[in-house]
Design a protein that fits this description.
The chain is of the alpha+beta class. 25% of the residues lie in helices and 27% in strands. The protein has an eight-stranded antiparallel beta sheet with strand order 9-16-20-17-12-13-10-15, with helices on one face. It has a five-stranded mixed beta sheet with strand order 1-19-18-11-8, with no helix packed on it. A five-stranded mixed beta sheet has the order 3-7-6-5-4. β4 and β5 form a beta hairpin. It is globular and about 75 Å long. The termini are far apart.
């Protein structure tokens, strides 16, 4: 009775805490979706049509009037680009589910559906990425056949996908030998990996498995040994729905019957990435507890799937026998291979343009409906990685984003590529012309105190040029050894340069690690992790939205890193 009374009396307090967090987080969240017309590049006008601003208190603390809140419309917010020097350029914070419902306009939500129906003007080969045709991931014919057959067998269980006639049939030998760190259930047949996946589907709120790569290790007349790399993502059945990600490899002994187009699994040995390949409990436990910022921004988006970082490293994973020094403040991590999407652009505006602070529009392949009768489920992933380097022989900087692809989307055999419109060059010329006109008119108009860094109304300052969008593609990111320092700012802050110098001094000069060099510039490879950003994917369309969270400076949520030789 005592414990029951305690639980009853503590419920109001718990609800107050949750409501407080929801209220705080409703002021600390921003959204970026691709423009319906300009999906291929980023510019002030394009971001202007991609952002919804939350109705918030005035700068002086007064609440907005009721009439003002009724007039809020999507894509018609003149002050949506006010910048106080701290917020993400081109975005404004807006609230949680309650405020989203107030701002919900059915006509504008339908624009997301129209964007999903846009047909690419490229050829089929230019608008799609066939994972199993990528020789960097599936290096030989047997590896391709085995990986593709296994993926389709898994997709049949998890998503009820149909199997094509060309894909080989995947079967399991009745006497299969299965060595795995994953628990086995009696009702799943005991030794059947596919049946275990089917049983696990009933336990988790969501389960996804992606076969990322495969290579033939041994081939004989009787059996062949193929090593496959996989990602397993799951939504845990707890109140906050923890999203966990496990990565690893499996050695598969198979019989390849090409005459009947059948691959039979004889033996499977699974290993998790890291120094403890059989420690499934340790791999899960660190991901199940609620993350502070996910709770702080409760109601804004689901828990993010975090790119795994293995911090317990063995000597074989280090390029030096000395290891990290006792006085060094950086974090050393090993990153397993992942499937990533890599949009890039060439920018000539420097720090002033702030182009690296948000994903470019040409990175997106769909739009996501978050409200209404056609509301879609999506998977947020974090962090978003940004790297900035010099362009050899040209003016400007090469900005490249690296976004990990969640297993739900990576499980598809064919992934859509961003749509590139044919009139891109003409539109860029029009944008530059309009910017020139804006500069001419700015001499007679004083600059706004709340203008964005993208604004061209600053006297005697040239208008920013539209960045040059480069082709976006998918690739299998190789394993990486990285060192990082925490940082509270953005990728193009002036302070980043000094932190890079400090990181290089600690890692390379003091501790003796060898930096990885860019193959073109021959310079160390630095990068920036935006841990306060989430890239959101749907299984049907891919990347469709980016969420940028506010985080306090004391948290130092982001990271500056350098890549090292393994």
């Amino acid at each position: 009775m005592a414990s029951s009374s305690f639980i009853s009396s503590s419920l109001p307090l718990v609800l107050e805490v949750v409501l407080l967090l929801a209220t705080l987080s409703s002021k600390c969240w921003s959204l970026h979706i691709p423009s319906a017309r300009h999906l291929h590049k980023i510019s002030p006008d394009h971001i202007r049509s991609s952002v919804v601003r939350r109705v918030s208190p005035n700068e002086d603390g007064n609440e907005p009037s009721t009439d003002s809140s009724k007039k809020v419309k999507f894509f018609e917010l003149d002050d949506a680009f006010e910048d106080d020097g701290e917020n993400v350029v081109g975005t404004k914070f807006f609230g949680g589910n309650t405020m989203k419902e107030e701002l919900y306009i059915p006509e504008e939500e339908e624009m997301a559906l129209e964007l999903q129906k846009v047909k690419p003007k490229q050829t089929k080969d230019d608008s799609e990425y066939n994972r199993f045709e990528d020789t960097n991931a599936f290096s030989d014919q047997l590896a391709k056949r085995a990986g593709e057959a296994l993926q389709f067998a898994i997709n049949k269980i998890l998503y009820d996908d149909s199997t094509g006639d060309i894909v080989a049939t995947w079967k399991e030998n009745p006497s299969i030998v299965w060595e795995t760190p994953f628990p086995k259930t009696n009702n799943a047949g005991g030794n059947s990996p596919l049946m275990e996946i089917k049983a696990s589907k009933e336990f988790y709120n969501k389960l996804d498995v992606a076969i990322l790569s495969a290579k033939t290790i041994e081939s004989t007349a009787n059996t062949c040994v193929v090593e496959v790399r996989w990602d397993v993502g799951a939504v845990w059945p707890n109140p906050w729905e923890s999203r966990v990600l496990l990565t690893g490899t499996s050695l598969l002994s198979v019989l390849d019957d090409k005459d009947n187009n059948v691959i039979t699994l004889m033996k499977q040995v699974d290993k998790l990435d890291g120094n403890k390949p059989l420690d499934i409990v340790g791999s899960l436990s660190s991901q199940l507890s609620p993350r502070f910022w996910d709770v702080y921004h409760i109601g804004m988006s689901p828990s993010a799937e975090r790119d795994p970082r293995l911090t317990a490293l063995s000597n074989s994973q280090l390029s030096t026998s000395r290891g990290k020094g006792l006085l060094s403040s950086y974090t050393l991590s090993h990153l397993p291979p992942r499937l990533v999407t890599e949009p890039a652009l060439v920018d000539t505006n420097g720090r002033f343009g702030r182009a690296a602070q948000a994903l470019p529009n040409h990175a997106f392949t769909t739009a996501i409906k978050t409200l209404g009768p056609n509301k879609e489920e999506f998977v947020p992933v974090s962090p978003i990685e940004v790297s900035i380097s010099k362009v050899e022989g040209q003016n400007g900087s090469l900005i490249k984003w690296t976004v990990p692809v969640p297993p739900e989307f990576a499980s598809k055999a064919v992934l859509p590529l961003p749509v590139i419109e044919e009139e891109e060059e003409e539109e860029e010329e029009e944008d530059n012309a309009s910017n020139d006109d804006a500069v001419a008119s700015s001499s007679t108009n004083p600059p706004s105190q709340t203008s964005s860094p993208y604004s061209s109304r600053i006297p005697n300052t040239p208008a920013p040029e539209a960045p040059q969008s480069l082709q976006c593609n998918y690739s299998l990111r190789p394993p990486r050894l990285v060192a990082t320092l925490p940082y509270a700012g953005n990728p193009q802050d002036e302070e980043v340069t000094e932190l890079r110098r400090q990181l290089y001094q600690q890692v390379v000069e003091n501790d003796g690690f060898k930096p990885k060099l860019d193959p073109v510039t021959k310079r160390p490879v630095f990068f920036f992790w935006m841990n306060d950003a989430k890239a959101c994917f749907t299984r049907a369309g891919g990347l469709g939205m980016a969420v940028y969270e506010w985080r306090a400076d004391w948290a130092k949520a982001n990271e500056i890193g350098i890549e090292l030789e393994c």
